[in-house]
Design a protein that fits this description.
With 95 residues, the chain is an alpha+beta fold. The chain contains two helices and six strands; from the N terminus they run ββββααββ.
C-alpha cells in the first residue's frame, strides 16, 4: 500500500485495508481543535486516479455516501476529488 503521508489536512497514521479501487488509512486531523481527531480516509489507487472514468465513479460514490444519513452511518468529513490521488474522509469507527 503506497499512500502519501498527507491527504488534505490529514496525516496518515497506518493502513486499515485495501480494495479494488483504492486503500483506506487511519489518519489524524492536524487542525487545532479538530473533532474527531482520527478519521478513515479512502484514497484512489494511482493507476486509477489517471482514468477519468474512475474519477467519475469515485464522485458517484461520494454523492451516494453523502445521501445516506443515520446514527449508524459514518459521516463524510471531507474530500478532494481534484487531488492527484482523490480521497474521501469519513468518521473512523473502530472495528
Amino acid at each position: 500500500m503506497a499512500v502519501p503521508d498527507r491527504l488534505g489536512p490529514y496525516h496518515v497514521l497506518r493502513p486499515l485495508g485495501s480494495g479494488g479501487m483504492g486503500d483506506v488509512v487511519l489518519a489524524a486531523d492536524d487542525r487545532p481543535g479538530a473533532d474527531p481527531a482520527e478519521v478513515a480516509v479512502k484514497v484512489l489507487r494511482p493507476d486509477l486516479a489517471a482514468e477519468p472514468d474512475f474519477r467519475r465513479r469515485f464522485q458517484r460514490e461520494l454523492d451516494a455516501v453523502q445521501r445516506v444519513r443515520g446514527r449508524s452511518v459514518a459521516r463524510v468529513l471531507g474530500a478532494d476529488l481534484a487531488a492527484d490521488r482523490p480521497w474521501i474522509a469519513t468518521e473512523y469507527v473502530p472495528g
